[in-house]
Amino acid sequence: MAERRERMPMASGNRAARSVTRRRLWALVLACVATLGIVASGSVQPTATEASWTSADQTKAAFVAITVPSPAVTSCSGTALSTAVTIKWTLPTTGGYTTADVEFGGSSTGLGTVGNLLGASTSATTGPVNGVYTTTLSSSVLGGVLGSLLGTTIYISLWTKYKPSSGISSTWVSAPVGYKVTYPAVLGVLGGTCSAP
């Protein structure tokens, strides 16, 4: 025969505890709904803050920038009955540069490290005599690169090039130095006349 369980009446203390728990639960639900209602209505806006951190860690580094020095031009002269130009110059005094590091350029618009490269390899460079090199830019080099020179003005530029050895693909160059060479319409005894650019 099946046993029958009888429900025992609850003691009044348990009923009171359940009633308090239900009231607290309803109060919590109402508080959450009220909070969501206030936030959703936009009456409470979050305020902006600025975050900041401090740390005792420090880093130190040194940067070294180099300036590629220019060669020094000491004189310029035209060659009689020719458009050839002779330039006397010295290597930069610092950096261990050689004649292979000096390039020549010709332009009709001013000194610069761009334009028609004349290159020391196509020119006769002698010296040094007391530290001074002599480079003669021949008529064929100047005329071949710049065209007819008679009655014109050209600019002969020199600069030092520097190729860093540590993975940098570009070549750095110094500021150009040089002379302005003015040719007469008809070649005479003096050839071109050199002057400051």
Q: Could you name the key traits of this structure?
A:
2 helices, 6-stranded antiparallel β-sheet, 4-stranded antiparallel β-sheet, 197 residues, single chain, alpha+beta
Which percent range describes the beta-strand content? 25-35%
Number of helices: 2
Please outline the major beta sheet: 6 strands, antiparallel
Radius of gyration over all CA atoms, rounded: 44 Å
Using DSSP, what is the number of strands?
10
Helix content: 10-25%
General shape: rod-shaped
Oligomer class: single chain
Low-confidence stretches: none
Structural class: alpha+beta
Question: Cα distance, first to last residue?
Answer: 127 Å
Would you list the SSEs in sequence order as H and E? HEEEEEEHEEEE
Mean pLDDT: 78
3D structure, described in words:
The chain has helices at about 10-40, 140-145; strands at about 70-80, 85-90, 100-105, 115, 125-130, 130-135, 155-160, 170-175, 175-180, 195. It is α+β, with helices and mostly antiparallel strands and about 200 residues long. The strands form 2 sheets. Strands 3, 4, 7, 8, 9 and 10 form a 6-stranded antiparallel sheet that branches. Strands 1-2-6-5 form a 4-stranded antiparallel sheet. The mean pLDDT is about 80.
